[in-house]
Write a structure and sequence with these properties.
The complex is a heterotrimer of chains A (243), B (344) and C (333). Chain A is 37% helix and 24% strand. Chain A is α/β, with parallel strands linked by helices. Chain A has two domains: 1-79 and 157-170 and 188-243, 3-Layer(aba) Sandwich (Rossmann fold); 89-154, no CATH class. Chain A has a six-stranded mixed β-sheet, with helices on both faces. Chain A has a four-stranded antiparallel β-sheet with strand order 2-1-4-5, with helices on one face. Chain A is globular. In chain B, 66% of the residues lie in helices and 3% in strands. In chain C, 72% of the residues lie in helices and 1% in strands. Chain C is built from 15 helices and two strands. A two-stranded antiparallel ribbon of chain C has the order 1-2. Classes of the chains: A alpha/beta (243), B mainly alpha (344), C mainly alpha (333). Chains in contact: A-C, B-C. Chains A and C meet through helix 2 and helix 3 of A and helix 8 and helix 9 of C.
Chain lengths: 243, 344, 333
């Protein structure tokens, strides 16, 4: 059985089908890229899996348990961590406390949570900034903070919304390595990303979303040679070519 | 506070009068309810009961027009500045004292002060905005709320100092005159309708109409609407938003002042007279949709009716209780206001 | 706005030291000055209560008189009509206030009220309570309730002779308990969650925090704390009526110390109360008994509140984060 099984998932906003009958699976430890032109429904799909918005029809089964209709915090505690494209730090709290919140949500002892938070911060190379206020961090550090907060949940699945965008190539490399490392621990990664070169390199499998529908799925090579995908991306060729 | 300003900081002001059909349904329901009351209440199997019901209906309708006018000023200020002006009622009281001085001291007919009082209060409002409110524009909601609250304490107590707490009133010589065959106070089926209340209602609607025309037709009105829809957008097309905000605050205050002039002939005036208007206008503004000027007018009439009819249906309870119940229900069920939804 | 606090023990020590120092007050301060101190304590207490919801949880309440009134009326009613000890009334009031807060809070959050709308809803709830209580004969309507004066002092009935230091000491004790609860709450896990939800609700939910539950919890705790001071108020002043208990003026009086001192800071409300009450006292004293050059204000009611309002406006304009909040920010780095 797969770690995440999404079946016949649909969501409409005032008549417009943002996500339309989507099926896919993610295996434990797998890195899956979710791509598609702007407005294809990627973030909506994330929000559906994470419980942020209610699904119209379809099922989300995680680790053998049907989590459709669960609240976001329950899903987070069950083992799905996520980051936000528009980052959402707790601005007036320190970096350490930001991560401690996530760690403490499933640990009754605050001290244990603090230790876990420090360990996670160390991993994402933010330990040096642990006492800074999150609101004062530069973009690259904030991206790491988002990742750290998600990791502190000790998740089996990470939903990463554009963790690489807005970073310089130099900032990107170490983060890519970190993501591979995280996957090697057996955690699955589902990433929405605009930086095509990175997704193609990182992902074992690619899902292509277009007009809310799953247009194609397969290895990076299969997907990039799929005529339907090329057609869908016609307007955005430069992007596919790799930015 | 992170999410002090509800969802967005733009797109609040609505300056069209649009009365959805169901509003008439509500009014009809209120009337039917009232009629039922005359049939079941002990008091009311008698003709006297019908008279009381009719009196409540007319009083509620007529005062509701004035409530609507006061609330329009408040809603306008919220629509453009996005602040909750807790001093709105105090400005109204100030305007009433101004009129009282002009009428009682100088001897001008109170209705003639409609040409003076609102103008002076426009200047007061504009000055207050520039000196006190404007520096706090970027501050969190609670600071703005307290600032205007402090202003209201300041105004109320200045009035107390200047005029003492003795109730004042202005009486019209011609309140009981007759115009042709029509004799005042008007009697309809036993209900008594005083001339000043009719003047207040009609005058209120006239001022409301003037405000609508000004906002929708004049150049300054267009600028105000632009600033009320999108502050940055307005400044991009060359609207001086700071000045518009000063102007809007003055205008909103002047509208309240006009309402103050209109109600003075049938109310007794004390430094705290505006408080009740203040609270009611908040209820009405939410009912009509924050920033929805037309909604405020219709909401005012609905609240006027609710207050009077509610007072009959639940004797012994405060007239305000049904008003607040409606208020809470609106906040929960239709926070965008009863007339919102269909965005412009 | 504060960050999550680290050193609970240090803060508790400061509190203990402050309490020890203040406990000596009734032994060298008497008469009206002591009454002023008691009023500072009440103001600080309700401010500390408000701050949990309005400051730390970021849910601005413009209707905290609801909780104050529930506390005041619960104990006053039980005492006046049934002769039940105010201590029990205090507990009952706190529980009722927490329940009222949880219910209205939950409803407000369920219907996604925020910002101005939320503030207006809290205001409306308090006003509704005022109007309902006004109409209740068993609560003596608009007349209010009067605490019967006992022949002798009694700890159990929380009544002492007017010269006794005990009123002050009881008030101080209550304030210390409320402040200690705040310190412990916001150095702990739950308090951290409450602040996280204030900072970013969606981010908190994604971190596994039940945002609604923690907001409701903050409202309930805040309500209960404020209710406790409501009971104490009745015992000190022997009287309560609907306007005094539930009126808008009380709602503002409750939020002022926190706003003047600094919302969302641990010591803001106490600093705010220590500034506001003497300020109000001083302005009304000047009117009663003005210095020679201010002769003309003698006995003119209104001036004191005008001065008060003006100072409030100045504080809001020039120290928008509150006195303590602005200072704390300056010294933080």
């Amino acid at each position: 059985m797969s770690l995440l099984e999404v079946t016949h998932l649909s969501k409409s906003f005032s008549g417009l089908r943002a996500v339309d009958d989507v099926d896919f699976q993610v295996e434990a430890g797998e890195i899956v890229g979710l791509i598609g032109p702007n407005g294809a429904g990627k973030t909506t799909l994330f929000n559906l899996v994470a419980g942020r918005i209610p699904v119209d029809t379809g099922r989300v089964v995680f680790d053998g348990e049907d989590i459709t209709g669960w609240t976001p915090h329950a899903i987070a505690r069950r083992g799905i961590g996520r980051t936000f494209q528009l980052m959402r730090p707790f601005a007036s709290m320190t970096v350490r406390d930001n991560v401690t919140v996530a760690a403490a949500s499933s640990s009754p002892r605050l001290e244990t949570a603090r230790e876990l938070a420090d360990a996670v911060l160390d991993r994402v190379a933010l330990a040096g900034m642990a006492d800074e206020f999150a609101g004062a961090l530069p973009t690259a550090a904030r991206k790491r903070l988002e990742l750290a907060r998600a990791l502190a949940l000790d998740p089996q699945l990470l939903l990463l919304d554009e963790v690489l965008s807005g970073l310089t190539p130099a900032e990107r490399e170490p983060l890519l390595e970190l993501l591979v490392e995280i996957a090697d621990e057996g955690r699955a990664l589902l990433l929405v990303e605009h930086v095509m070169a990175a997704v193609m390199r990182l992902s074992q499998r690619i899902l292509v979303l277009h007009h809310g529908q799953l247009l194609a799925a397969g290895t990076p090579d299969e997907v990039t040679s799929d005529p339907d995908v090329i057609e869908a991306y016609l307007g955005e060729e430069e992007q596919l070519a790799g930015s | 506070m992170s999410d002090a300003g509800a969802s967005s900081r733009t797109g609040r002001l609505q300056t069209r009068l649009h009365v959805p059909r169901w509003v008439w349904g509500v009014v009809l329901a209120l009337v039917v309810l009232l009629w039922r009351w005359t049939e079941v209440s002990d008091l009311a199997v008698t003709p006297a009961g019908r008279t009381i019901a009719l009196q409540a209906l007319t009083t509620g309708l007529l005062i509701g027009g004035v409530y609507g006018l006061v609330a329009m000023g408040l809603s306008l200020i919220f629509g453009v500045l996005e602040i909750i002006n807790f001093a709105h009622g105090a400005f109204l009281t100030l305007a009433m004292y101004l009129t009282w001085v002009l009428a009682d001291g100088v001897g001008i007919d109170p209705y003639l002060t409609l040409l003076i009082t609102p103008l002076l209060m426009f200047l007061v409002g504009a000055a207050v905005q520039k000196v006190v409110i404007n520096p706090a524009m970027g501050q969190p909601l609670e600071n703005q709320l307290l600032l205007t609250f402090a202003l209201s304490i300041l105004i109320e107590n200045a009035l107390l100092l200047a005029f003492s707490a003795n109730p004042r009133s202005v009486r019209l010589d011609y309140a009981n005159a007759s115009i042709g065959p029509v004799e005042f106070p008007l009697r309809i089926g036993g209900a008594i309708i005083e001339l000043p209340r009719i003047v207040a209602f009609v005058g209120g609607l006239a001022v409301a109409w003037a405000l609508f025309s000004f906002l929708n037709r004049s150049r300054v009105g267009t600028a105000i609407r632009a600033a009320g829809l999108n502050r940055t957008g307005a400044s991009l097309v060359g609207v001086n938003v700071d000045r518009i905000q000063v102007l809007t605050f003055g205008l909103g205050t002047a509208v309240a002042a006009a309402a103050g002039v209109l109600v003075l002939p049938f109310l007794t005036l004390e430094p705290t007279t505006g408080t009740q208007f203040n609270i009611l206008s908040f209820v009405i503004v939410v009912l009509g949709g924050l920033g929805n000027i037309g909604g405020a007018l219709v909401g005012g009439i609905l609240i006027g009716l609710t207050q009077e009819i509610g007072g009959l249906l639940f004797p012994g309870q405060s007239k305000l209780l049904p008003v607040f119940i409606i208020f809470i229900a609106t906040l929960f069920l239709k926070p965008e206001g009863l007339f919102g939804g269909g965005a412009e | 706005m504060s960050t999550v606090l680290r050193d609970a023990r240090g803060q508790l020590l400061v509190l203990a030291g402050l309490a020890a120092l203040l406990a000596t007050v009734p032994f060298w301060l008497e008469g009206s000055a002591r009454t002023v101190m008691i009023r500072i304590i009440i103001s600080a207490g309700v401010g500390v209560g408000w701050n949990v919801m309005g400051g730390f949880a970021g849910q601005f309440s413009f209707g905290h008189a609801a909780y104050f009134g529930i506390g005041a009326y619960s104990s006053a009613y039980l005492l006046v009509d049934h002769g039940i000890s105010p201590w029990i009334g205090m507990a009952v009031g706190a529980v009722l206030a927490a329940a009222f807060g949880a219910l209205t809070g939950w409803l407000s959050f369920r219907y996604r009220l925020r910002g101005a709308y939320f503030a207006l809803a809290t205001f409306a709830f308090a006003e509704m309570l005022r109007l309902v209580v006004q109409g209740q004969e068993w609560l003596n309507g608009t007349q209010g309730l009067q605490v019967p004066v006992l022949a002798e002092s009694s700890w159990w009935m929380l009544q002492f002779s007017t010269t006794s230091p005990n009123y002050f000491l009881v008030g101080l004790g209550l304030l210390v308990v409320l402040q200690a609860i705040t310190i412990l709450l916001f150095h702990g896990r739950r308090g951290m969650f409450i602040v996280a939800v204030r900072e970013d609700e969606e981010g908190a939910e994604a971190s596994g925090v039940d945002a609604t539950a923690h907001k409701v919890m903050a409202v309930a705790v805040s309500g209960a704390m404020t209710a406790v001071m409501g009971t104490f108020f009745v015992q000190v002043f022997f009287f309560i009526d609907p306007a005094l208990a539930f009126g808008p003026a009380e709602s503002v009086a409750i939020l002022l110390p926190a706003v003047v001192g600094g919302t969302g800071t641990l010591w803001g409300p106490i600093v705010g109360a220590a500034i506001l009450i003497p300020l109000g006292e001083w302005t009304s004293k000047i009117v009663r008994d003005p210095p020679p050059f201010l002769d003309f204000v003698a006995g003119r009611s209104g001036i004191d509140l005008m001065v008060f309002a003006t100072l409030l406006i100045l504080i809001l304009l020039f120290l928008p984060k509150g006195v303590y909040g602005s200072l704390a920010e300056r010294f933080r780095r």
